[in-house]
Amino acid sequence: MSARRDDDAPLLQVENLQTVFFTDKETVRAVDGVSFDVRRGESVGVVGESGSGKSVTARSIMGLIDSPGRVVGGSIEYKGEELTDNTEKEWQQVRGGEIAMVFQDPLTSLNPVYTVGNQIKESLRLHQGLRGREATEAAVELLEDVGIPDAPRRIDEYPHEFS
To answer: How many Cβ atoms sit within 10 Å of the Cβ of residue 55?
Structure first.
């Protein structure tokens, strides 16, 4: 058996993820035993019925579960680093700079009074220290990376102008 090369290791590894919500009446197991790996360059789709735990799984991976919810078991490793015990300060260093979540509805994900480009550039400023033309070029490149046509023009549009 040969040793696994670093480039063969999963970028994201979720093992037996368990997220629950504690209410006055009951404990709701929203995610129970989810496991998957994502390797560099790989796309993974999470499919299921409404209410099956897709969004809670994604929010758990991002460290965005609010009370009364909590990740109570399992492991979330990103680039070999365990994330489940991160402090909020550690999450802030990872979220947006290393990992991000794009919500399906741009009207609930993005501020409607700012252009999409301004909101992307704000994240680039916070997490990568980019400003001015450099931030604009990086924002255009990110839009192109996710398949947005005519990204240099669309960067100045507002969220409601995206489908």
So the answer is: 18
**SS3 readout for 34-59:** EEEEECCCCCCCCCCCCCCCHHHHHH
Whole-structure pTM value: 0.70
Q: How far apart are CA 156 and CA 100, in angstroms?
A: 21
Tens digits of residue pLDDT in 32-83: 999 999 998 888 888 889 889 998 999 999 999 989 999 999 999 999 999 9
Structure token digits, residue 70: 């909590």
d(CA 53, CA 49): 9
Distance from first CA to last CA of the chain, Å, rounded?
Answer: 49
CA 151/CA 9 separation, integer angstroms: 33
Q: What is the pLDDT, as a whole number, of residue 146?
A: 86
**Contact predicate 19/71, CB 8 Å:** yes
